[in-house]
Amino acid sequence: MIIFAIETSCDETAVAIVKDGREVLSNVVSSQIKTHEKFGGVVPEVAAREHLNSINIVIKETYEKANITPDKINAFASTVGPGLVGCLLVGLNAAKTLALVHNKPYIGVNHLNAHVCANFINSDLKPPFICLLVSGGHSQIIYVKDYDKQEILAQTIDDAVGEVYDKVARLCSIPYPGGILLDKMAHSGNKNAFNFPEAKVKEDEFSFSGLKTAVLREVKKFNTENLPKEDIAASFQYRIADTLIKKTKHFADKLNCKTIALAGGVAANSELRFRLEELKKQGYKTNAPELKYCTDNAAMVASAAYFNPIKTKDSFLLEVFSRG
Ligand code: KG4
Ligand code: ZN
Q: What is the pLDDT of residues 226-237, one digit of tens each?
């Protein structure tokens, strides 16, 4: 089954064509980083307009790269939420229109499920597994019992991990997109320079706002010129990865499910991937999507459309939603 999918939930206009949920025939991502750079973050209204400007160009390029014609497509899919409503509408409308024009089904996809399904791309991973989903909007540990059966085991009670990364980057005057730049900077820092605290929370919770405040407290002790950005980045990154991996491992042991996967934009983080890799030595099976399938892309949406579509009587009546 060949699925054509569109992702426009935030600041990437992405289109992909994927066979049977795992084999990518083409994957095009047009990033709006340059546009939002000057604002220091994503401006929803501006992002929606950018999607509108780019969507048809990206669709054309995706067809060309796959060297495929629309008659070979079995279904058209898009993310319906959670995300920025104005942005989601662009992708949803384009995908529904393509489906109607070519007389094919439309499939709606949940953005978070799509991040989880990024693990199936170019891999033979099968449920059950424990998935640590960390993005700009969400931080969750999910028990993926089956392709379409998931249970949330833990989630953040305040900021999402990506959000904390971006905020801490801003505190350190690291420009947008903060997360990835902070990750790079951490490589030349000392992770033991600052002992940032780990929040005391319940088994099913994460909390990162205290960590953010602790970083702010340290930043205030320095002038901009002598701020030890690298050391702050390394110490912060160590604490985040350690907290996330420890709790994920806890649930893997508790449920006796020894396969652990990563998902979401922060799954591209080098320390997190290193710590995941280390779990192999302790007997866990691990999986992490390739970097380009961690951050927002449409290949993961096509994969979710295949493995875990939103179930509804009439998918053409599906509407976008902002929070999940
Ligand atoms: O999944 P994603 O592309 O969009 C959402 O659905 O939110 O995640 C974006 C988030 C941003 O907060 C970004 O700073 C973070 O992922 N991110 C990273 C890295 N690459 C992207 N955070 C830490 N290290 C990275 N290498
Ligand atoms: Zn995302």
A: 999 999 999 999
Query: Residue 313: which residues within 8 A CB-CB, separation 6 or more?
Result: none
Q: Is 271 near ligand 1, meaning CB less than 6 Å away? A: no
Per-residue pLDDT of 75-131, as tens digits, reads: 999 999 999 999 999 999 999 999 999 999 999 999 999 999 999 999 999 999 999
On whether the pTM is more than 0.85, the answer is yes
**Looking at the structure, do residues 132 and 203 belong to the same domain, yes or no?**
yes
Residue 163 CA to ligand 1 centre (angstroms): 8
**For residue 143, what are its two tokens?**
């028990």
Domain that holds residue 19: 2-118+294-317
The edge-to-edge listing of strands for the beta sheet with 75-81 is: 23-31, 12-19, 2-7, 75-81, 106-110
CATH of the domain at 35: 3.30.420.40
Place 41 in a pLDDT band, splitting at 50, 70 and 90. Answer: confident
> In 3D, which of 164, 118, 120 has the Cα closest to residue 138?
164
Q: Is the CB of residue 288 below 6 angstroms from any atom belonging to ligand 1? A: no
Nearest alpha carbon, ligand 1 atom 5: 136
Closest CA to 78 of 88, 68, 69: 88
Q: Are residues 284 and 302 in the same domain?
A: no
Instruction: Verify that 194 and 300 share a domain, yes or no.
Output: no
The label of the residue with tokens 């546009």 reads: 35
Q: Could you read off the pLDDT of 144-191 as tens digits, one per residue?
A: 999 999 999 999 999 999 999 999 999 999 888 899 999 999 999 999
In terms of DSSP H, where are the helices of the chain?
A: 33-37, 44-66, 85-101, 111-117, 161-171, 178-186, 209-219, 229-254, 270-279, 299-307
Q: Which of 249, 265, 2 is nearest to 131 (CA)?
A: 249
